[in-house]
Amino acid sequence: MTLRSLLVDFNSYFASVEQQVEPRLRGKPLGVVPMLADTTVCIAASVEAKQFGVKTGTKVGDAKKMCPGIEFVVARHELYIDFHHRAVATVDSIVPVRAVLSIDEMDCELTGRWSDPAFAMDIAVKVKAALRRDIGECLRTSIGIGPNTFIAKTASDMVKPDGLVMIQKSELPERLFDLPVRALSGVGKQMEKRLHEHNIRTVRDLAARSKDELHSVWGGIGGHIMYDRIRGEAIANRETETGSISHSSVLGPEGRNDENAFAVLNRLTQKAAMRLRKAGFYAGRMTLDLKYIDGGHWGKDMRLVDTQDTVAFLHVLEKLWSERPKRKRTILKVGMAFSDFVSEQDHTGSLFASEDRSKSLYKALDSLNVRFGKQAVYFASAHKARDRGGMHIAFNHIPDPKTDK
Predict the structure, then answer these.
(1) In the annotation, is 213 catalytic?
(2) Tag placement on the chain: N or C end, fewer CB within 10 Å?
């Protein structure tokens, strides 16, 4: 038996949840947006909107031209998280959920007789039926079944919406030959460009290269892993650690000025610091990112002694902000990130001041914000943006409504 993974991928997840909750939106082109403004972008599009070419990242103004009659709704992230947890519980009641890959994807483990093709297909049908019954008819899924998670993911992408595709090890890698390399999970824009430079454009081209050649192309063990993945080999899951904690916010038309942009960044920094402490990390680098309405971009980072201290981060924010280009440009989006993490056990602490008092203070502040909400206690420098920087769902980060508000 070679089947090990059944991957459940919800189609147009955010938009589908909205259509499930609001029957009037069913069957209609729909865009989910961070705010109602023509200059912002769709963070999700319904199946019906995608038929007109609207997708994630499409500007609202362009979407209106591409799809006359499209409706827009402001994202409700807590709603999507609630549906996610209910969906995971439903799937897990039928087949063990091995890993939650993102807000709209989960990898399920096939063992024993369940790895038999007939049994695996039967499980997939039962999963689809249970989700329709327990979560809602609008929450359609594409399910892929394969000898490893990578192949199952690839299979789930082959038919959308509402697909069910099985790929067995005996069919590999030939079954994938006609796919462009960009269709493979983990191959982004930059890697696609690198592969094209080596005359690798399809999986057929990829499969023709040796492990050593792919090691050279990837610049490391990633090439060996891809060699095995496309052949359906079992790949041991490598432990992954949080590499960064980041937040961003699109500014509304009335708030696209320096004063508001800085206040929002201040709010995002305080929010990220709370997440950092919850995760038990200390950050050694902070990055600032600005996107302008004309399409331009500016970013800068700064090293710092690893810390969890919100005040220290706010000082770094002021320093980075002071170095932004002074040429007058309208800021559309702001973002910040912490990285270069140090774990609790590897943190040495300051040589010049005791951290015990500040740690106790932040523990109390974080507890108050969890109990009473995001505006219970905050540094006054974020007062103008106290209602901004709310909860957002990243591709592989599912927020905790208690601490990510």
Answers:
(1) no
(2) N
The catalytically annotated residue of 18, 105, 137, 213 is 105
Same domain membership, residue 88 and residue 69: no
Q: Classify strands 97-102 and 281-292 as parallel, antiparallel or unpaired.
A: unpaired
C-alpha of 253 from chain center = 26
Among 40, 44, 36, 42, residue whose Cα is nearest residue 13: 44
Is 134 found in the same domain as 55?
no
pTM greater than 0.70: no
Is residue 105 within 8 A of residue 99, CB to CB? The reply is no
For the record, the structure tokens of 46 come out as 């319904």
Q: What is the mean pLDDT of the chain?
A: 86
Task: Please write the tens of the pLDDT for every residue from 292-305.
Answer: 888 888 999 999 88
DSSP string of 79-143?
HHHHHHHHHHHHHHTTS-EEEEEETTEEEEE--GGGGSHHHHHHHHHHHHHHHHHHT-TT--EEE
Query: Which residue segment(s) compose the domain that 177 sits in?
Result: 5-9+80-229
Structural domain count, the chain:
3
